[in-house]
Amino acid sequence: MFKKWKKVLLAGIISLSLVGTGYVGHDLLSTTSAAAESATADAPGHQKKAAASQLDDIIKRGYIRVGTTGDYKPFTYLNPKTNEYEGYDVDAAKELAKDLGVEVRFVSTTWPDMMKDLQADKFDIAVGGVTRNTARQKTAYVSQGYITFGKVPLIRAEDKDKYLTIEDINKPSVRVGVNPGGTNETFVRQYLKNANVTVVENNLDIPHLVADGTYDVMITDTVEAMEYAKADPRLYAALTDKPFTKNEKGYMIPRGDFIYSSYLEMWMDEMKLQGKFDALYKKWIE
User: Closest Cα to residue 158, out of 79, 84, 224, 238?
Assistant: First the structure.
């Protein structure tokens, strides 16, 4: 430490001498300043200023903005009777806000717009059945998983032995309904190129259209397929014990904010340790 201060003192003396003769230059002043800052930073008791975090902004403003689609039961659903959001991830978001000591404000988004809305700072976190994948991780931060699932066909109960493989579905004669912009459409575009595919804007409409015979198959997650099959005896959630894929659900926030992402991960760890995710599973899925 003595050597550093000796170096700074010597540089200062030289700088002042040259100033007096008019020969001081920018490089020398920069070197002197840098040396002084380095010594100060290493000095006992000195604390570096912490980088700003979105977590601090949330706490300061007193509410967290939660982006969700409201069309993906049982994770998120905008109930038209109450005009309120409900579901597994809606309750989880309320718990997150409670732990932060702030209010929760839900912001409507869509699957095609979710990522750009997050990047445009329309909300602080995206929830509601968001699938973890590397494509999303390239432009956002996706948390650890909290539910494992896979893509399966939701079909009519009378056809439960008819659509058992991708080959069974990937035919021009098979009518597939899919919602736009999410991983369901990604799967359909990749594996069902020969099927008769229709994009249906409102995801909530597709199960009913399968049940009444408009479409033959809806590709969705095991959890959602089981939800609709439980609610409508005309429907059947096929291959739930052996889905086409294996994935996890997570929560999505802007990338590059270590403080915020670290808090989110610890909060999720605590939710698991305290059995709160288990309680949500029992309430909304079992």
Answer: 238
Burial class (CB within 10 angstroms; exposed 0-12, middle 13-18, buried 19+) of 251: buried
> What confidence tens digit (pLDDT) does each residue in 210-260 have?
999 999 999 999 999 999 999 999 999 999 999 999 999 999 999 999 999
Edge-to-edge strands, sheet with 76-79: 71-72, 76-79, 84-86
What percent of the chain is predicted at pLDDT more than 90?
A: 81
Q: What is the distance between the alpha carbons of residues 176 and 118, in angstroms, rounded to a whole number?
A: 30
Residue 71 confidence (pLDDT) above 60: yes
Q: Which position has the token pair 């999505």?
A: 252
Q: What are the residues facing 78 on neighbouring strands? A: 85
Please count the helices (runs of H) and the strands (runs of E) in the chain: 12, 14
Rounded to an integer, what distance in angstroms lies between the CA atom of residue 89 and that of residue 130?
10
Q: Which of 195, 245, 185 is closest to 215 using CA atoms?
A: 195
**Which residues fall within 8 angstroms of residue 200, CB to CB, at 6 or more apart?**
177, 178, 179, 180, 206, 209
